[in-house]
Design goal:
The protein starts with a strand and ends with a strand. The protein folds into two domains: 153 residues, Medium-chain alcohol dehydrogenases, catalytic domain (Quinone Oxidoreductase, Chain A, domain 1, Alpha-Beta Complex); 151 residues, Rossmann fold. Helix content is 24%, strand content 28%. It has nine helices and 15 strands. Strands 3, 4, 5, 6, 7, 14 and 15 form a seven-stranded mixed beta sheet that branches. The chain has 333 residues and is α/β, with parallel strands linked by helices. Helix 2 crosses helix 3 and helix 2 crosses helix 8. The radius of gyration is 20 Å and the shape is globular.
């Protein structure tokens, strides 16, 4: 038997997620049965897609169950094993509970080489967010030299990589972020040509006309809402949109209307494509080879925000939904 600490979904949010949506509790796990392993969490990834899972609305992932632990991408250490594929001491990555320990059948987990890079990097620049950026930019946006690419949430876990990949392809890259420090990092470190603060620049159309005078050829969309509406109006003929997320809309009580004049899609022959990166898992090896190589060569930079302690996860997650994190957000369990 193992005493654990865990965070469960106490109630479903209506509008903004609040602290009483979570409950911090202790529990007891039985010893692993045949085929099971006990994994001690080391790092937990906090990601925007978790917000829709807190509701019962139809989405691409099942909703979290009430009074049960939330789950998320994690890195952990096997501390007990009755599964021949795993040994005590193995470092694994996959979906684990928001808990100090998870009893798991091992399916869907993969072993990591713990040497070389920080464990948290496997949840960020070498993990799902970076894979998302790589797929959306390489297979949907397809930037070319001389084109203009826009990236919303330019310094988030996904955006920071998407913008750099577009820049490496020779495009002009413009982004937006939620404060001046983030915008400065995007330009000075990530190589963006320009980045505006969407909290102080409220006339999105005017600032886009200034920074993207030739229009926008490709948009890597993470934010949605009014920012996307302004981008949509400025897409050039044959423009491409990789619709990764719409974090500005996740906590709306009522759905927001889409951009006006949708016939623009036909007139300008636009390609607006939503995507979920798990649908493209077969390309993970290609991603690791390409992006892993860029990281090793120092051609791809990344930021992460590390929060200490499982008890801090709910507050950190609420901050994520308001754009308070800088780069990839992880919890050191």
């Amino acid at each position: 038997m193992t005493e654990i600490r865990r965070i469960v979904l106490a109630k479903r949010p209506v509008g903004d997620v609040t602290a009483d949506c979570f409950r911090d509790e202790t529990a007891t796990l039985a010893a692993p049965a045949d085929g099971q392993i006990l994994v001690r969490s080391r790092f937990l990834s906090l990601d925007p897609y978790m917000r829709p899972r807190m509701t019962e609305l139809r989405s691409y992932t099942p909703p979290f169950d009430l009074d049960k632990p939330l789950t998320g991408g994690s890195v952990g250490e096997v501390v007990e094993s009755k599964n021949p594929r795993y040994a005590k001491g193995d470092i694994v990555m996959g979906m684990l509970d928001w808990a100090t320990h998870t009893l798991h059948d091992g399916k869907g987990l993969r072993k990591l080489d713990a040497a070389g890079v920080p464990l948290s990097a496997h949840l960020g620049v070498l993990g799902m967010p970076s894979f998302t950026a790589w797929y959306g930019m390489k297979h949907i946006c397809k930037p070319k030299a001389g084109e203009t690419v826009f990236v919303s949430a330019a310094t988030g876990a996904v955006g920071q990589v998407a913008g750099q990949l577009a820049k490496l392809a020779g495009a002009k890259v413009v982004g937006c972020a939620g404060d001046e420090q983030k915008c400065q990092w995007a330009v000075r470190e990530a190589g963006y040509d320009a980045c505006f603060n969407h909290k102080t620049e409220r006339d999105y159309g005017a600032v886009l006309d200034k920074l993207c005078p030739q229009g926008i050829d490709a948009d890597f969309e993470n934010v949605g809402g009014k920012i996307f509406h302004a981008v949509f109006e400025r897409l050039n003929n044959f423009g491409r949109v990789a619709f990764c997320g719409a974090i500005s809309e996740y906590q709306d009580k009522e759905p927001m209307a889409g951009p006006p004049k949708m016939f623009t899609i036909v007139q300008r022959r636009l390609n607006l494509q939503g995507f979920i990166v798990s649908d493209h898992a077969a390309l993970m090896g290609d991603f690791v080879n390409e992006v892993g190589g860029l990281v090793k060569e120092g051609k791809l930079k990344s930021r992460e925000t590390v929060i200490d302690g499982l008890a801090s996860a709910p507050q950190a997650f609420m901050g994520l939904l308001k754009g308070e994190n800088f780069g990839k957000l992880v919890v050191k369990v």
